[in-house]
Amino acid sequence: MRNAFVRSLATAARADPRLVLLTGDLGYKIFDSFAAEFPGRFINVGVAEANLIGVSAGLALGGLRPFAYSIAPFATLRCLEQIRNDVCYHNLPVTIVGVGGGYSYGHNGPTHHALEDIAVMRVLPGITVVCPGDPLETELAVAAAAAYGKPVYLRLGRAGDPLVHSSPPHFRIGQAITLSDGRDCTLISTGGILPVAVAAAEQLKRAGISCRVVSMHTVKPLDDACLRKCSDETAALFTVEEHSGIGGFGSAIAEWSVANDHPAPRFSFAAEDCFASVSGSQDYLRARNRLTADHIAAAIAAKLQENAPC
Amino acid sequence: MAHSAQAPHTGSALSCADLLVALYWSVLRLDPNAPGEPDRDRLILSKGHASTAQYAALAERGFFPNAVLEEYARDGGRLAEHAGPHCVPGVEAATGSLGHGLAIGVGLALAAKLHRARYRVFVILSDGECYEGSVWEAALLASAQRLDNLVAIVDFNNWSAMDRTRPALDPLTEKWRSFGWSVQELDGHDFNQILAALNSAPFEPGRPSMMVAHTVKGKGVSFMEDNLEWHYRPPNHDDLARALREIGA
């Protein structure tokens, strides 16, 4: 997703001279071509995330469209008050880009894991939270954010995330993408865990369970029409995210269910409420948190079995 | 305003009132009839708790009618104790949480450079605010980016919300200088000194300018001067009458 981001950002920058890219001293080498092509429009502010966001807000007040880039926990937590007061309160067109959603930076340890960012970002008034599911969604999300004109938090994976879509899907912020239809249940995914959701649905299919898969890349605002449709047309909703189960995507959908008098999701697959106690790759840490296709498929099948008539 | 709304921070407002008068009447290139003019100078009052001084100056300068001042800290009013974004013409940024204004000012100054615009950016900080790490993050970047269209002023009244700021902040001038700023130290109530400095900005080409302005909290009202109580206590009827008599209003 990181490379897709850089590519798409350059395209957007060619079309819009207001676009500028700021980094908190991260992204070694990946921005070289951007810096060379757009002199003066790439600024490394140094290891100073509060300043990264405050300066981005000032640039936006001065008529520019900044993208502020860092690793997700640094881009959201260190500078939370700057995002709240300087960007959201002023409703400025700043896109905060957090690379390394979930356990992307696995072996770097919990300081680099992003398992709280969705919760913390989506509570801020006026922000839009977008978590693309693969590199193609990332490309389209960057273009959409560049044109959006409002505060956006863009949560990416890392370099080397697998492609899920075979061709560019129709992408609009706030509009979920249905990858495959299904009648028995819907598995709604956000962010880079999407390939796992797709694999889980394939396993369910082999077991005779028809599972719809939706990439709900926009966590705020939620796609109300899509949720209603899935809720009306399939017997049960399940959610999956590489994020804490507290306050994240599953929580957002549970809130939606309460507010709209729809049945809540049967289960939300999410990371446990703890720091990783051992070092591990992304795949290893996902597995420790039961965020694998095997586990998700088995758990969904079991939940649906509980419902089955005797 | 502070009296009628029974609001705090009168001392903080009086501390920077002379600086605001100098800026709004003699330095800033502004047109109250065109407050959104793209090339206007920008002033950010980063010590947002002194908003009454800024609101009063903007009204007096013709940005909005004096009657709007009656909305200060009133239910349904436009003027909160800390200014909101675009709450009234002339307010460039919402402040209130300390340590935000300078970074926003750096961003605006960078935008001016990128656009090759001629406007300048002024930011007023409190001395207590200089305890915020974010101030120094912004200070580093301002000099690294050679923002000589940026002027910051520390309203150095030697009080934070609970304590003296000296000697903890000393030597403040040297601190800013070591961060790459061109610094002048002066009496923040002496118009000759203030105007001489502001009109000579940038103090050096290629560097951001810093005015360390020595001020007195509660300046102009004998019983408020250098008295921390007036960071908190709203003036009562008698306080108001005495204060107005003393400043000759």
Would you mind describing this structure in some detail?
The complex is a heterodimer of chains A (about 300) and B (about 250). Chain A has about 300 residues and is of the alpha/beta class. In chain A, about 40% of the residues lie in helices and about 20% in strands. A 7-stranded mixed β-sheet of chain A has the order 2-1-3-4-6-5-10, sandwiched between helices. In chain A, strands 7-9-8-11-12 form a 5-stranded mixed β-sheet, sandwiched between helices. In chain A, strand 1, helix 2 and strand 2 form a beta-alpha-beta unit. In chain A, helix 1 packs parallel to helix 7, helix 3 runs parallel beside helix 5 and helix 8 crosses helix 12. Chain A starts with a helix and ends with a helix. Chain B has about 250 residues and is an alpha/beta fold. Chain B has one domain: Thiamin diphosphate (ThDP)-binding fold, Pyr/PP domains (Rossmann fold, 3-Layer(aba) Sandwich). Chain B is about 35% helix and about 10% strand. Chain B is built from 8 helices and 5 strands, in the order ααβααβαβαβαβα. Chain B has a 5-stranded parallel β-sheet with strand order 1-2-3-5-4, with helices on both faces. In chain B, strand 2, helix 5 and strand 3 form a beta-alpha-beta unit. The mean pLDDT of chain B is about 95. At the A-B interface, helix 3 and helix 5 of A face helix 4 and helix 5 of B.
Which range does the strand content of chain A fall in? 15-25%
The main sheet of chain A orders its strands as 2-1-3-4-6-5-10
Order of helical and strand elements of chain A: HEHEHEHHEHEHEEEHEEHEHEHH
DSSP E strands of chain B, number: 5
Instruction: Sketch the major β-sheet of chain A.
Output: 7 strands, mixed
Q: Quote the CATH topology of chain B.
A: Rossmann fold
Shape of chain B: globular
Which ranges of chain B are low-confidence, i.e. pLDDT below 50, for 5 or more consecutive residues?
none
**SSE string of chain B:** HHEHHEHEHEHEH
